[in-house]
Amino acid sequence: VQLQASGGGLVQAGGSLRLSCAASGIIFRLGVMGWYRQAPGNERELVASITSDGTTNYADSVKGRSTISRDNVKTTMYLQMSSLKPEDTAVYYCAANRYSDYVSPMGYGMDFWGKGTQVTVSS
Predict the structure, then answer these.
(1) How far apart are CA 42 and CA 23, in angstroms?
(2) For the stretch 65-92, what's the b/e string if a residue is b when 16 or more beta carbons lie within 10 angstroms of its beta carbon?
(3) 3-state secondary structure string, the chain?
(4) Is 63 exposed, middle or buried, given 0-12, 13-18 or 19+ CB atoms closer than 10 A?
(5) Average pLDDT, stretch 26-46?
(6) In the predicted structure, residue 58 carries a pLDDT above the cut 80
(7) Burial class of residue 122 in the structure, from the number of CB atoms within 10 Å of its CB (0-12 exposed, 13-18 middle, 19+ buried)
(8) Are the beta carbons of 78 and 98 closer than 8 angstroms?
(9) CA nearest 98: which of 119, 113, 81?
């Protein structure tokens, strides 16, 4: 299974971005999918996650400003981010588990990872 993240870019503070993560390969289903981010000098952190039945979870830092969703038919996940702040600047990674709906807060043990997409928010 391969994950491909896209949608990052440069945006002004207060703007919006939609990140996408497309899964390919031999997939019948996936468990939890999630977005992580890592800024220079910081540890990787979980931004948002969504289980196979659609249960969502958000970091306090993005709650109310972000919406995670997934299309299980297309095995694609999205993260709509609005009211972006400079502190949202980071490389964003998508990750997934093949079967489990458990999401690791720092990403350890997640089965699949995509290459990151850079999000830069200018003040």
Answers:
(1) 27
(2) ebbbebeeeebbbbbebeebeeebbbbb
(3) CEEEEECCEEEECCCCEEEEEEEECCCCCCCCEEEEEECCCCCCEEEEEECCCCCEEECCCCCCCEEEEEECCCCEEEEEECCCCHHHCEEEEEEECCCCCCCCCCCCCCCEEEECEEEEEEC
(4) exposed
(5) 91
(6) yes
(7) exposed
(8) no
(9) 113
Average pLDDT of the segment spanning 77-106: 95
Using CA of residue 80, residue 66, residue 30, residue 28, what is the dihedral sign?
negative
Share of the chain above pLDDT 90, in %: 86
What digits encode the pLDDT tens for the residues 105-122? 899 999 999 999 999 999
Q: What pLDDT is attached to residue 7?
A: 97
- CA 82 vs. chain centroid, Å, equals 14
Residue showing tokens 């391969």: 2
Structure tokens at 53: 């039945």
- Cα separation, 5 vs 59, whole angstroms: 19
Top pLDDT among 46 and 74 is at 46
The total number of residues shown for the chain amounts to 123
